[in-house]
Design a protein that fits this description.
Layout (H helix, E strand, L loop, with lengths): L2 E8 L4 H11 L4 E9 L2 E8 L3 H10 L3 E5 L2 E6 L4 H11 L7 E7 L2 E6 L1
Antiparallel strand pairs: 1-3, 1-4, 2-3, 5-7, 6-7
Length: about 120
Amino acid sequence: MSQQFEVQLPNRPGELAHLAKALCARGIKIVQVHQTTAGDLTCAEIYTDCCDDDTTEVLRGMGYTFVMGSAVSVEIEDTPCAFGEVSDKLTRAGIRMKSCCVLGRANGMATWALS
């Protein structure tokens, strides 16, 4: 799995595009992005294909607040309760999940990125 960045952005039109163009200018490919918004802020969960230093430099240069993390890709059954069961097992093992998202679904399985 590629490097993960949780980036806090102002909630205004074009802000994510501005970030994407800045990463592109440095040759950094966005492998996946997920954005959610609440009020005046938006959070973009971005996975890049590049070394941490380059992406970090772009984000700091743009003044964004962010947190880096590592993510693992796991395949679980694509059933209504499967993710809840996996989450519960992680919690009981003392593992705190910071973020998650579905990367894809095929043949009765769901691929998740967990951080």
